[in-house]
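Hi R.,

Here's the input for the zinc ion complex you asked about:
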Amino acid sequence: MRVLIFILANILLTSGNLDKVQHERDKLFNEELQMMIGSDIELSDSEIKANEVIMDLKNEELEHGFLHPGNFNVSKHFFEYKESVKKTKLYQLIKNMPKGAVLHAHDTAVLGPDYILSLTYWKDLFVCFDGDDINLLFSRNVPNTTCGTEWQLMRDARFSSGNVEKFDADLKQHFSLVIDNPEEVYTDINTVWSIFQSLFGVIGPVVTYKPVWEQYFYDTLKALREDGVMYFEVRSVLPQLYDLDGVTYDSVATAESYKKVVDQFMVDYPDFFGAKLIYAPLRLVEKKTVKEYLEIAREIKRRMPGFLAGFDLVGQEDLGRPLKSFMSELVEASKEFDLFLHAGETNWSGLSSDENLYDAIALGTKRIGHGYSIIKHPVLMREIKKKDIALEVNVVSNSVLKLVSDVRNHPLAAMLALDLPVVLSSDDPGLWEAEPLSHDFYVAFVGVASKHADLRVLKKLALNSLYYSTYPNKDKLVHDFQIRWTKFIDSVVRDKW
Ligand SMILES: [Zn+2]
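And here is the predicted structure with zinc ion in place:
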């Protein structure tokens, strides 16, 4: 009898403990769920139905990946899966989803190599092959600049090659970072950055021909619109443009070209909300050059008030000058312009590129370009939350440019879990043959965010991109977004995907 009572008491005690642990576990789980970005969003009845469709698709991919990690696409190199994921239902659904604004992308790197290749069919383009390098230039006459071999018309070079298809395939390779063996060739961050930057050098003379420049930007806006984007804040170094007679146009004229294109685009596509400019010249310069940059920014602001969103500096942070070396210039700048500074796009902790984060925040930056390393700085994370400074996160860029090889380890996972102010963007999608924004949303949703991150996270990220933009009439922007969103939700529920 005593033994029986003892056993019964033990069973009761164990089940009591089990309940307690279970309860504690559920409490912790729910606390985290309620902390996650988007948890403040209440889904409507239709959204709940659409969420079921979306989460079924997502869970299918994750559960398959969990059982067969070797098949989990987004944990591999982006070049390996960028085309195959486009065929998945979830990708197509995300492609159709209104995604708000692109707030972090560099102008001449949005469209891919096929588009640049199509530009080489324009007349008056000359080419000069120089070993493995290639020089391109539009000109009325044969260019007189020196070159390893001879300048010839692209048209002649193409047709005298005897194999136009091969000629074009070889040419296209000069406009893209995509190769078959990235792990072998892009061995470290400096190597991949040096090749990445050399692409701008090749593409530059093609796109800075003034008529091409305007066409490229027009087609960029079109591509963004087709990818579910309604507004764009474009970063540009504002290079000098040129025409067939070798006449050059300064940075202010380059900005004017952009303004003209945006105005025309808005007439042609009145459902688009336009674009603003973040003047973002190169950071690897002397102090006096930064002073000149600011003069240019002032002139743009004077001539086109409302078009200039603000100022930034670009280039690889590990090798470029840190923000603190331009502190007095940037303090001046912060009084006149909104700052949108690249900072913390690095794997280092406590080195100059990482510490750019302190300077950017102290300078009052409105948003931070990347902020990849902020996850190592509890005080800075607290500060951006308090001051409502958004992080412009570019997951695919960070993986291609070698900050992270498996995106499941991207700090965005923690940023979302901590509900930091985040906007998703795409940086230079054309150079790695990504779509303007869809790949980044897909990879973030499937590869980075928690399995429990649902439609609310997607909606919040889209809404954040509007909220943290500098668009003057945000109510109108959000109202229009809601109409598009409702249509999208209805289509998901109706078509079941
Ligand atoms: Zn960038």
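One thing worth noting: The chain has a mean pLDDT of 95.

Cheers,
M.
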